[in-house]
Predict the structure of dTDP-4-amino-4,6-dideoxygalactose transaminase.
Amino acid sequence: MINVTKSFLPPIEEYNKQVQRAWDNQWLTNRGELVLELEEKLKHYLKISNIVVTTNGTIPLQIALKLLGEQGDIITTPFSYVATTSVIVWEHCTPIFVDIHPEYLTIDETKIEAAITDRTTAILATHVFGNPCHVEAIEFIAKKHKLKVIYDAAHCFGVTYKNKSLFDYGDVSTCSFHATKLFHTGEGGAMFTNDSDLQHQLFYSHNFGHNGPLTFHGLGINGKISELQAAMGLAVLPYMKTILSDRKKVIDYYDANLDFSKLQSLKIRENTNWNYSYYPVIFENEKQLLKVEKELNDHQIFPRRYFYPSLNTIDYANGVAMPISESIASRIMCLPLYIGLCENNLDRIVTLINNNIC
Ligand SMILES: *Cc1c(COP(=O)(O)O)cnc(C)c1O
């Protein structure tokens, strides 16, 4: 069986070696030695100055919205994983959707201003599949209208834009270290900001608001990652180079062999150093997609319809029609992409696709 992805697992001895440290310390959570080391190593690897590692990639979005969203209207993208919208509703804010760019698939910055009202407090946009939003235009609009910018950068581990980590853009940006993501800790995530006051707020918010054992800076929740998850991160991180180069080989194969007379691929924004996180293909229509999907499934190959449905159509979101996002969502599929996917299997996938898109 070939799935859309397969978690990278380091040699188990290397994971055990890290876990042994937690045993030796008899310390399993509350920001122990492994979590602190993981944060330092990630800062170095990503060339960033601040990080708070968390227990998943959703809680940092909730914390950022709690701090910056003020229960107002949040301008957001309809084309993302459901978490981008559900956190807005969960935090008693209102999602206001703005349609996406048909090629970059990120929020269409030229349509943002028309959606701003006096209830708008923030923009929550996704760098979808690791492809950056138009961060300069969004920053300009946010400054002009005094809005906060939060980026769901769940897919963006290691991506740089104009030679800076993509995590450096926006007031807060967040990442996911879920098992299906490029770099993972089983479950995990992180939040990033360059503002030292905000960094302080993010930090205490993820630890019940604690200021030492007996006093509190303010309201908080439990977003802490455990030593056991950090152990996985420390064991995976040394393999990033291999992970990236192996994934690039798969992508190069698809690029060279798929029939692009009938398929559209993701357009990566200029000045981006991308991370090979997903391989979406866009069909001419949903019927074609369903035919190819069925053919692949019949051969035990399981791509995923990322992202479907368009989030404005989910009942609790109360979104208005988003024609581009709805059209793309109905026609897009992510192909299998993981380290160790061999050429034999790639050939089968490509042949099945090319022979069935007519
Ligand atoms: C994976 C993902 C999330 C959620 O991250 P978790 O670590 O699973 O909580 C949020 N947004 C996007 C775009 C994602 O792909």
Q: What stands out?
A: The pocket of pyridoxal-5'-phosphate is lined by residues 56-58, 80-81, 83-84, 126, 152, 154-155, 176, 178, 189 (CB under 6 Å). The chain has a mean pLDDT of 97.
